[in-house]
Design brief:
There is one protein chain. With about 190 residues, the chain is an all-alpha fold. It has helices at about 5-20, 25-35, 40-45, 50-70, 80-95, 100-105, 110-135, 145-165, 175-190. It is built from nine helices and no strands.
C-alpha cells in the first residue's frame, strides 16, 4: 500500500472514530478500522495529536476552496457572488458530521487551534483582497480597511456558525444565511 493511500485510510478512520466517540480517538481503534498495524499509524502521524491535526487540516481544505470561489461564477456581481460563497460555507459546515466537533470539543485542543489558525490566516488574506476588489467595484464601503473588515466578518461568521452548530436545535440554513447577509449588507456594503 502506498504511503499516501495509507495516510488517507488512517485519516478516514480517525474521522469516523472522532465522530462516533464525540471527539475521543484511540490509535488502536483507528489502526484496526483502517486495517493497518498501530505501529504504522504512529509511523505516519507520530502521535494521536498528529493524526487529529491531519483530520482537522483536511476538514479546512474545502473551506479554503470555497473561499477561493472556484465553484462560484465570476460572471456574477460581487454582492451575489459573496452571498453564494457564504451560503456554500454554511452548507459545508451543516453537511459535515465533523463540524460540531471541530468548532466544539476539539476547538480547545492546541493542535486544532494551530491548524485552524494557519487556515484562517490564509482565509483572512484572501478575504482582504476580495473586499478590496469589492471596493474597486464600488460595492463595498471605501472608508473601511479591508484587513480589519475581513477579520470582523470572519469572526462574526465563525461565531455564528459555531453557535448554530452547537445549538440544541440547529437553525435553518437559509434563515442563518439571511441573517448573516443582512448583517454584511448593513456593515460593509455601499447603500
Amino acid at each position: 500500500m502506498k504511503k499516501v493511500e495509507t495516510s488517507n485510510k488512517l485519516i478516514d478512520a480517525a474521522e469516523k472514530e472522532l465522530i462516533a466517540n464525540d471527539g475521543v480517538l484511540e490509535m488502536s481503534a483507528v489502526a484496526k478500522l483502517a486495517g493497518v498495524s498501530i505501529g504504522l499509524a504512529y509511523h505516519h502521524f507520530g502521535s494521536k495529536t498528529g493524526l487529529i491535526a491531519a483530520v482537522v487540516d483536511r476538514f479546512y481544505v474545502p473551506i479554503r476552496n470555497i473561499a477561493l470561489g472556484d465553484k462560484i461564477s465570476l460572471s456574477l456581481d460581487w454582492h451575489e457572488r459573496e452571498k453564494m460563497r457564504t451560503a456554500a460555507l454554511i452548507d459545508y459546515y451543516y453537511a459535515n458530521s465533523l463540524s460540531p466537533l471541530i468548532v466544539g470539543r476539539l476547538a480547545r485542543e492546541p493542535e486544532v487551534q494551530d491548524i485552524e489558525k494557519s487556515h484562517m490566516d490564509a482565509l483572512l488574506e484572501l478575504g482582504a483582497r476580495n473586499l478590496s476588489q469589492g471596493q474597486k467595484e464600488g460595492v463595498v464601503n471605501p472608508d473601511l480597511s479591508p484587513s480589519i473588515m475581513v477579520a470582523m466578518l470572519m469572526g462574526g461568521l465563525s461565531m455564528t456558525i459555531e453557535q448554530a452548530l452547537l445549538a440544541p436545535e440547529r437553525p435553518d440554513a437559509t434563515e442563518l444565511l439571511n441573517q448573516l447577509w443582512l448583517f454584511v449588507e448593513k456593515a460593509i456594503l455601499v447603500p
